[in-house]
Specification:
six-stranded mixed β-sheet, rod-shaped, Rossmann fold, alpha/beta, 8 strands
C-alpha cells in the first residue's frame, strides 16, 4: 500500500478519534448536569414541608441519578473507542513513515540506476572515439567480431564460481544452471565445464583448454574489479583481479568467446569495454543484486538458450522470470553488444544437421 493511501487512512482515523473524544466530552457534561440536578432535587426535598412534594423531589433525584449513570456509561464507552482509535492512529503513523522511507529509497535507487546508465553511455562514447583513432585496437575489434556463432558443434560454456568467504551461493547457481540445461529441448548440444572455487588459473586453463563459446562468472565484483579464489581450503579474502586483466585473459586465445556473462554486482560497468575490445556480447548487473535474483535470471537465461532462443530472447526471459517471481532485480541484468551484431538474430544453440 502506498504512503498516500496510508496517509488517507491515518487522516480518517484521526477524525474518528477526535469525534469519539468529542462524544465522550458531551456525555461527561451531561452526566455532570444530571448529577447536579439530582443533588438539587434532594436538597429541595429536605426543605419542603409537604410530604408529597418531598417524595416527588426524591423520585426526581433518583431519575436524574439514573440518567447521570447512563450518560457516564456512554462517556466511558466513547473514551474506550477514542483510545482504540488512538492505538490505530499510532500504528498507522509507523506504517506511513516506513512507506515514505521505502518510496524515497526506491526513487534514490532509480536515480542511481539512471545515472549509472548515463555514465555507461558516456563511457561507451569515449571508448568508441578512442578505438576509432587507434589502429591496433580497431584491427583487434574487427578480428574479434568476425567470430561466427557455433552451429556445427556443441555450445561450450565455462562456468566459474568464486566465493572465497563462503557468503554467496555459487554452488546453488551452478546446480540450477545444470538442471536448466538438462531439462531443455537441445540439452545434448550444450557442454558445461563447471568450476566451483574458481581461481585465476581456472580462468586461463578453461579459456585455453576448453575453448568456451560462453564464459560465465559468478562471485563478488565492483565497477572495475573481480574477486577470484586462492588455492586455500579455509575462508579467505580472495584474489582481486582488475577488469582489464580479466579482459586480457578472455582475449588470450585464438578462438575468443561469443558471450561473457558476469553474474556479479555492478559488472554492467565493465561490459561496454568487453564488447568493444573482446567479445560480441556481454551481460552484467547494473547494481547490487541478491543471490536469489542472480540465480533465477541465470537459470532461465540458459534454459532459453538451450531451447534454441536468441541471446536477446533469453535475456528477456531471464528478466521475466524475476518479475513473475515477484523479485525486485528484473531491471538489473544488462545486455550489451557491438554495432555489427544483432542479439535478436544470434542463436547460440541450433540442431546439428
Amino acid at each position: 500500500m502506498s504512503s498516500n493511501q496510508l496517509q488517507n487512512q491515518l487522516d480518517r482515523k484521526r477524525k474518528q478519534r477526535a469525534d469519539a473524544e468529542k462524544k465522550a466530552g458531551e456525555f461527561r457534561s451531561k452526566e455532570s448536569e444530571k448529577r447536579a440536578a439530582a443533588d438539587k432535587a434532594r436538597q429541595a426535598a429536605t426543605k419542603t414541608s409537604s410530604e408529597s412534594n418531598a417524595r416527588s423531589k426524591l423520585r426526581e433525584a433518583e431519575r436524574r441519578d439514573r440518567e447521570a449513570a447512563t450518560a457516564g456509561k456512554e462517556a466511558s464507552r466513547w473514551q474506550a473507542t477514542a483510545a482504540r482509535y488512538g492505538k490505530d492512529e499510532t500504528a498507522l503513523l509507523t506504517k506511513v513513515a516506513k512507506a515514505q522511507k521505502a518510496e524515497a529509497d526506491a526513487l534514490e535507487r532509480q536515480r542511481k540506476r539512471e545515472q549509472q546508465q548515463a555514465d555507461r553511455r558516456a563511457a561507451a562514447d569515449r571508448s568508441a572515439i578512442e578505438h576509432r583513432i587507434s589502429r591496433t585496437e580497431s584491427a583487434l575489434h574487427h578480428a574479434v567480431h568476425q567470430f561466427h556463432v557455433p552451429q556445427k558443434e556443441k555450445l561450450r560454456v565455462l562456468v566459474l564460481g568464486a566465493s572465497s568467504a563462503g557468503d554467496l551461493r555459487v554452488g546453488r547457481e551452478q546446480k540450477r544452471i545444470r538442471s536448466a540445461v538438462e531439462s531443455a529441448l537441445h540439452r545434448d548440444l550444450i557442454e558445461l565445464d563447471v568450476r566451483p572455487a574458481a581461481t585465476t588459473a581456472d580462468l586461463l586453463d578453461g579459456i585455453s583448454k576448453f575453448r568456451p563459446h560462453v564464459v560465465h562468472f559468478s562471485g563478488h565484483s565492483s565497477e572495475d574489479l573481480i574477486v577470484f579464489e586462492d588455492e586455500r581450503d579455509e575462508p579467505h579474502q580472495g584474489v582481486i583481479v582488475t577488469a582489464r586483466a580479466f579482459s586480457a585473459a578472455i582475449r588470450a586465445t585464438d578462438t575468443p568467446p561469443v558471450l561473457v556473462f558476469m553474474n556479479a554486482c555492478r559488472t554492467a560497468h565493465q561490459i561496454d569495454d568487453l564488447v568493444a575490445e573482446v567479445v560480441p556480447f556481454a551481460i552484467g548487473m547494473a547494481d547490487e543484486i541478491d543471490d536469489g535474483d542472480a540465480i533465477n535470471y541465470a537459470a532461465q537465461f540458459y534454459a532459453s538458450v538451450a531451447n534454441g532462443q536468441s541471446i536477446h530472447a533469453a535475456h528477456l526471459a531471464g528478466q521475466a522470470a524475476l518479475e513473475l517471481a515477484g523479485l525486485d532485480g528484473a531491471d538489473l541484468p544488462t545486455l550489451a553488444w557491438t554495432d555489427n551484431q544483432d542479439p535478436t538474430d544470434t542463436i547460440l544453440v541450433k540442431p546439428i544437421s
